[in-house]
Amino acid sequence: MPTSTRPKAVITHERGATSSVERALRVLRVMSEGGSVRLTDIASAADLDKATALRLLDVMAREGFVKRDAQSKQFTLGPELTVLGAAALRRFDPRPLARPSLMRLAGVFQDTVVLSIRSGVESLCIDVEEGTYPIRANYLTVGSRRPLGVGAGSLALLAAMPDDEREAALETLSGQLERYPRITPALLRERIDQARERGYAVLLDVVVERMGGIGVAILDPEGRPVAALSIASLNDRILTRETALAHALLHEATVCQVRWAEATRAHRRPASPLKETSR
Q1: Percent of the chain having pLDDT more than 70?
Q2: Which of 57, 80, 103 is the last residue of a domain?
């Protein structure tokens, strides 16, 4: 993704109350899509002036959380974040649970399959499996963030949220859709109603022209949406195969839910006490 198109960081606090920690976290969130990023683009997307952004980046570079290329002067994520990410994933990583489903869906339908999770009022792409169809939806990469409702998987997450949480999210989202002029609060509510009725979400020709997606939510044992599976493709390839795509996605979501429940139980199960051995 070109750096100039990176979305603004989601800001839910008053500007005057912003701490240095909050500013630094906004910078890291902007950089989460990976790749090299210019200072100008980081500052713009994080809603900071360049001097403040550079000061934060210099501190994070000294601590190993970002790196700066000596020639291009662009910034990338540093090794310390890899350590933190690995530590977080040791607690619970949903990707291995869903990867077989991504591979099966991409193999059958030959289109791009995406695994997303919710992060506040955004959806975060955490895994992608590309199909073999020549025209591919390559605008979603691991680390891509979008407001909830922007994209089929993101819409499926929003539709599956409890009513009160979804309403609160929609209130927040109303001011964050300027980059997607075809997506209005009214359109979102209409598509949410359709998704809740059908059990899957469809969004065509509103994020990327002539492209769209179909997605389903993956629920935890309490019935809350924890992730979404979606297929991105040309509009015609979705419309002409909608029933087959929906059935396959719903099946794979159920498979993921079973594996998720098993993994959750295993994670919560206390370790067996060590038996004292005689000497």
Answers
A1: 84
A2: 80
